[in-house]
Write a structure and sequence with these properties.
The chain is α+β, with helices and mostly antiparallel strands. The chain folds into two domains: about 110 residues, no CATH class; about 100 residues, no CATH class. About 25% of the residues lie in helices and about 30% in strands. Strands 1, 2, 3, 4, 5, 6, 7, 10, 11, 12 and 13 form an eleven-stranded mixed sheet that branches. About 5% of the residues have low confidence.
């Protein structure tokens, strides 16, 4: 499954990495699929992310899912036409229900769905509670119990009912200090979402292999093209060595 995300070296060098994650024996390893640079005419991070999502979504096979970290917004995934995705969301993430609330008989008729806040947050010392979930789940992993809360049929907080819908799950893993917020357009279980999100982590091996096995972090170049070419070759070579 392709995994997309700006690792630290990617952010410094202004490019994005898309990798397919699979097995070599019993080890999960990434395989570089796309290396995208910023465009000279528009070097903004927003433009780079749009291009990365568009190209990553276009290369998805029927049995693949694009997994991304919280640096990629759900709005960009929906507008980019990514057919299948799982995305981490920020702790303050909010959405809306994809139906209008009942009219209360006074004032203007509602045009937006009820706001949904999957995770609680604190604002100016005041706790803002999370919205009660529509469903819950739990499963066992290596002797610990992982729990999840699920909200279905949501739209973006700025969208009206009828916009592209998605689901949200909050995962409570005893091994994590904070819960995970996940958004997806897949009709799969919370445990499957948890597994899919964890499969993004192998992409972090790419820069580690380039630095630790090749010593790329000690190399210095000054030419405009070389500043892109050296880390790209280092990532490819490190991926092969891994």
């Amino acid at each position: 499954m392709p995994s997309l995300g700006p690792t630290k070296p990617c952010q410094l060098s202004a490019w994005q990495v898309v990798a397919a994650v699979g097995f070599v024996g019993k080890v999960r390893l990434p395989l570089v699929r796309l290396l995208l640079r910023t465009e000279p005419g528009d070097p903004s991070e927003a433009n780079l992310q749009r291009r990365a999502l568009t190209q990553a979504g276009a290369t998805l096979q029927p049995d693949e899912v694009l997994t991304v970290d919280a640096g990629f917004g759900v709005a960009a995934l929906l507008s980019g036409g990514v057919p299948r995705f799982v995305a981490r969301v920020a702790r303050h993430f909010t959405a809306r229900r994809n139906i209008l609330p009942a009219y209360k008989g006074r004032g203007r008729c509602p045009v937006y769905g009820e706001r949904v806040r999957p995770m609680p947050r604190t604002h100016k010392g005041k706790l803002i509670a999370a919205t009660p979930p529509e469903a819950t789940a739990q499963w066992g992993v290596a002797g610990r119990t992982v729990q999840a809360q699920v909200w279905d049929n949501l739209v973006l907080s700025t969208s009206k009912p009828g916009a592209p819908a998605f689901r949200c799950a909050v995962i409570h893993d005893p091994r994590s200090q904070a819960p995970w917020g996940l958004a997806t357009n897949l009709p799969v279980s919370a445990s499957a979402l948890w597994c899919l999100s964890r499969d993004r982590w192998p992409v972090e091996q790419l820069p580690l292999a380039a630095k630790q096995m090749l010593g790329a972090h000690r190399a210095f170049v000054f030419g405009g093209e070389s500043r892109h070419r050296l880390p790209e070759w280092a990532l490819l070579a490190g991926n092969i060595l891994a």
